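User: Good morning. I'm curious how FE2/S2 (inorganic) cluster would be positioned relative to this chain. Could you predict the structure with it bound?
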Amino acid sequence: MNLHVSGDVGTRTTAIIGALKGLEGPLLPILHEIQAEFGYVPQESLPVIARELNLSRAEVHGVVTFYHDFRERPAGRHVLKLCRAEACQSMGADAIAERVKALLGIDFHQTTLDGAVTLEPVYCLGLCSCAPSAMLDGEVHGRLDAAAAAELVAEARR
Ligand code: FES
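Assistant: Good morning! Here's the predicted structure, ligand included:
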């Protein structure tokens, strides 16, 4: 079973690389496409990318971990992103983050045990004038306060 899954990941990874390899600086577009395909960047994809782009596996892994956009594990059913950038920080994003983490019982980059919610940091949602901001499953929410944050968490858990 595992072998089958690995093979599938390998085949699909190879197809994505084949389509994007000709781009200048192909690594990031390839990683984005792999995440779009699988919902995360599977470990099995890394050696395939490294081989095809003539990079070391450590180099590929370094890029995956450097960019906050890439997930190393599948996400929960809902993804809640909290803005951590400056405008939101200045409007109390830290307190919101602490509240949300406590309500969910997880830290950033983690998923609740029931698989319902993954919590991720994001660095500006383009909604600075409505800071602090968040995004739940692609929908942006601004002017969060403790009550609105709790409501978002409840919505994500539904
Ligand atoms: S800094 Fe948070 S939306 Fe821009």
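Residues 1-6 have pLDDT under 50 and may be disordered. The longest helix spans residues 2-20.
Let me know if you'd like a different ligand tried.
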